[in-house]
Amino acid sequence: MSEKVLVTGGFGLVGSQTVRRLVADGHRVVATDLGTPTQRKAARTLPDGVEAHWADLTDPGHVDRLLAATSPTAIVHLAAVIPPGIYRSPALGRRVNVDATLTLLRAAQARPHPVRFIQASSNAVYGARNPHRNAELLRADSPMNPADLYGAHKAEAEQHIRSSNLEWVILRLGGVISVDPEAMPFSVDALFFESALPTDGRIHTVDVRDVARAFAAATTADVVGETLLIAGDESHRIRQGEVGKALAAARVSSTSCPGDVRVIPTATTTGSSPTGWIPLAPNKSCDSSTTRGRTCSTRCARRRGGGATRCG
């Protein structure tokens, strides 16, 4: 029988793509999130057979009932409060990013059968890096030194996960992007947040479909106890100064490729390289004379013997 995978934050940008990837790979999937009107509407677009469970992960009772009702063999934990919203509601951010993660870990450890826990972390755990003083590439074993609230939350959550007795895998994501501008979060707050950051800061992006492949693979791959860096190839490395233009242009044109600077990056610190797979499509502008409004796609291939662990 196929594995049953519980995906928290299952109706967001990464969650919805991860759910689709898991279904395509033959898994039984349970997607959970808050039962808001927006999330319930999003649930109607997911593939047939996906179970939707509405739960507040900050409520231990909800979490216990969720796991009892679904009995997952693996949990992909994507639910989070991210920038810039985390700075508007820092207390809520901590309850979701740290406390709810710990609650979910404890509930999973109490299950009668082993549960694999796959955590969505971020390159934000490395903190700010001056590109003129820190030219070296980051590695999975580079020291964590978070410089902002979100990075600190993710670093603390990682420590809780490593202290658990579960089979765990941590994926540190670069700046997740999509070829669909409508799928990307956009607000005046986001634009202001990006404009306040140093323009020469480095950003390493990754297509959301590649992120989904990574999470799906982590549910069964022989990577227990590993921290993996997930991002695109060298063509996905851009500068912070390009983000403001990307935020505006993404609302106008959808003729773009993964990594094209016209697509909104959602992370603002240095990203990571892929492990176990590599994107085959380079980051280059689509030829508008041939695409006719269509989007280019990133294809992925498995890399034998693992993959690179450095990032820029």
UniProtKB/TrEMBL annotation:
Residues 5-221 form the NAD-dependent epimerase/dehydratase domain. GO terms for molecular function: oxidoreductase activity. Keywords: NAD, Oxidoreductase. Residues 268-288 are annotated as: Disordered. It comes from the Bacteria. Belongs to the NAD(P)-dependent epimerase/dehydratase family. This is Short chain dehydrogenase family protein.
